[in-house]
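Quick one, C-alpha cells below. Sequence please?
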C-alpha cells in the first residue's frame, strides 16, 4: 500500500511541479526581457531567485498538501506514518529534478563545491518538512502545538538561511546544521503525525 501511495503521490506532485516550473520559467523570461532594457548594477537577484524559488515552492507544498490530503489517504487505508514517509520520499525524488537548475546556478555564479551542492539538495526536502512542521499543530487541533510548530518552523528557516550568512559559517558547518535538522524532523515529525485525530 505504501508503494502504491508513493507512486500516486509522486505522480500528483510531478504534475504540480510541472506547473510550477512552467510558471516560474515564464516569469523569469519576462524579467530577463524587462531587465535587458534596463541597466542595473546589482544582478544578484538572478542566482538568488534560481536557488530559492524551488525551495519556497517545496515549503508551500509542505504547508498546503498535508492539510488537505492527510485525511484522504488515511481514509483509503494508509496509516499516518505511512502517509508521511510516502509523501516525504516523493518530495525527495521531486527535489532531484528541482535541484538541476539550482546546481547550474551554483556552478555558474558561485564557487562550486561538493559540500555546498549536497547542502542545497538536502535543503529542499528540509524546506518541505519545515512547512509541515508549521501546520502540524493545526492538524493536532492543539493551540500550544500550533504555536510551537510555527515558532519551530520560523527558527529552523532562519537557522538554514539567515544565521549561516550572518555568522559566515563554513560549508561544512552549514551542511552539518542541515543534516541535524533533517534527522531531527525525520525522527520527531512521524511520531507527532501518528497522533493526528480525525473526526468520523
Amino acid at each position: 500500500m505504501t508503494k502504491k501511495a508513493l507512486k500516486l503521490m509522486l505522480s500528483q506532485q510531478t504534475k504540480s511541479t510541472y506547473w510550477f516550473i512552467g510558471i516560474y520559467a515564464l516569469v523569469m523570461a519576462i524579467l530577463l526581457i524587462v531587465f535587458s532594457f534596463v541597466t542595473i548594477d546589482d544582478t544578484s537577484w538572478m542566482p538568488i531567485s534560481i536557488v530559492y524559488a524551488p525551495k519556497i515552492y517545496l515549503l508551500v507544498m509542505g504547508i498546503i498538501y498535508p492539510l488537505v490530503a492527510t485525511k484522504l489517504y488515511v481514509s483509503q487505508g494508509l496509516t499516518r506514518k505511512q502517509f508521511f514517509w510516502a509523501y516525504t520520499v516523493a518530495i525527495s525524488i521531486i527535489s532531484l529534478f528541482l535541484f538541476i537548475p539550482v546546481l547550474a546556478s551554483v556552478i555558474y555564479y558561485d564557487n562550486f563545491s561538493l559540500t555546498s551542492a549536497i547542502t542545497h539538495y538536502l535543503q529542499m526536502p528540509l524546506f518541505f518538512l519545515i512547512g509541515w512542521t508549521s501546520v502540524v499543530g493545526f492538524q493536532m487541533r492543539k493551540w500550544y502545538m500550533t504555536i510551537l510548530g510555527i515558532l519551530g518552523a520560523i527558527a529552523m528557516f532562519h537557522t538554514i538561511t539567515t544565521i549561516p550568512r550572518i555568522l559566515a559559517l563554513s560549508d561544512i558547518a552549514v551542511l552539518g546544521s542541515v543534516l541535524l535538522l533533517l534527522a531531527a524532523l525525520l525522527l520527531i515529525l512521524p511520531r507527532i503525525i501518528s497522533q493526528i485525530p480525525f473526526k468520523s
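The chain has one domain: 2-193. The mean pLDDT is 86.
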